[in-house]
Design a protein that fits this description.
Fructose-1,6-Bisphosphatase, Chain A, domain 1, D-Maltodextrin-Binding Protein, domain 2, 2 domains, 8-stranded mixed β-sheet, 6-stranded mixed β-sheet, 18 strands, 28% helix, 26% strand, binds 1,6-di-O-phosphono-beta-D-fructofuranose, binds magnesium ion, Fructose-1,6-bisphosphatase class 1, FBPtase
């Protein structure tokens, strides 16, 4: 089994990017340890604060954010970071080559029930001619990502990573503290009979999504003429991991619960990195209007509709919007 650095060198990843990835992973090992300590860690409750998006922050959101911020900004490789838990981008080294966006703790509502949570990150190169404190550094489409990944703090701690040469899985060897390559070139089968969506929002979806999901639920009695299974982990990291491992379609569609907030998932640190991983595994990742990674961002916290996973099933879903 290979350690992560030699595996990345084989994929011709530049040495400074390998160093940055290792820096990010150092923070995930610390979080993995704290998550593993559970209620003994003293960081599982809620804070009294809200983040910029009006969501109550959990202590672990805050601790994880601080760890990532400190470790990436101190590395010297990073010009600026943006995070779900930071109002705006945070400046690092003026000469840093890279910018990093992250969701330090994804699936916050799962923390207190000892269920799946994770960290999502996305790395781009900093454009020339902008200072480190300029949030416009981040206004690049997902196609500009040079690396994307997530770490899942599950029964084992796993990393899914892409640098544009396939999507690979690594598992944290907790005895030696190293991420080991455990599956190279993960592929999502084009066909599936499994879907993931928060069904409780059904009445708020647009008509095409209602029609698509109705036909899945109708199973062998409906137009699809076969039964579909449903799963919902309520942490995008967990749901996307399942899609990468055994296929499926995952969607968080637009809804009209709150007219000012039609979408839930965030483009820069949820949808884009997951799209890069899914596309590198042969899947599709789109909104009802087009490829997620081609969206030109206007705000670091912007939200986006997400439909991703098995190629044929995502195309089938899109056909309802035509
Ligand atoms: O509350 P819902 O509708 O089940 O939403 C679950 C979704 O919210 C998220 O937990 C949002 O992420 P955060 O925990 O980082 O805010 C996604 O990971 C997940 O897919
Ligand atoms: Mg999240
Ligand atoms: Mg989060």
């Amino acid at each position: 089994m290979q350690r992560i650095a030699p595996a990345l060198r084989e994929d011709n990843v530049p040495l400074d990017l390998i160093s940055l990835i290792k820096t990010i992973l150092a923070a995930t090992k610390e979080i993995s340890f704290r998550v593993g300590q559970g209620q003994l860690s003293g960081v599982l409750g809620s804070t009294l604060d809200e983040n910029i998006q009006g969501e109550v922050q959990k202590q672990l959101d805050v601790v994880a954010n601080q760890l990532f911020k400190d470790i990436t900004l101190e590395s010297g490789f990073v010009k600026a970071i943006s995070s779900e838990e930071e109002d705006t981008s945070v400046a690092g080294n003026e000469d840093g080559k890279y910018i990093v966006s992250f969701d330090p703790l994804d699936g916050s509502s799962n923390i207190e029930i000892n269920s799946l949570i994770g960290t999502i990150f996305s790395i781009m190169e900093a454009p020339e001619g902008m200072s480190a404190d300029n949030p416009d550094l981040f206004k690049q489409p997902g196609t500009a990502q040079v690396c994307a990944g997530y770490v899942l703090y599950g029964p084992s701690t796993m990393l899914a990573l892409t640098t544009g040469a396939g999507t690979h899985f690594y598992t944290l060897d907790k005895t030696h503290g190293s991420y080991m390559l455990t599956e190279r070139n993960v592929k999502i089968a084009a066909e599936t009979s499994e879907f993931a969506i928060n069904m409780s929002n059904q009445r708020f979806w647009q008509a095409p999504m209602q029609g698509y999901i109705n036909d899945l639920v109708a199973g062998s009695d409906g137009p699809r003429e076969r039964n579909f299974n449903m799963r919902w982990i309520a942490a995008m990291v967990g749901d996307v991991h399942r899609v990468l491992v055994r296929g499926g379609i995952f969607t968080y569609p637009a809804d009209n619960r709150n007219p000012n907030k039609p979408n839930k998932l965030r483009l820069m640190y949820e949808a884009n990195p997951m799209s890069f991983l899914v596309e590198q595994a042969g899947g599709l990742s789109v909104t009802s209007e087009g490829r997620i990674m081609e969206i030109q961002p206007t705000d670091i916290h912007q939200r986006v509709e997400v439909i991703l996973g098995a190629k044929n099933e995502v195309e089938k879903c899109l056909s309802y919007y035509k």
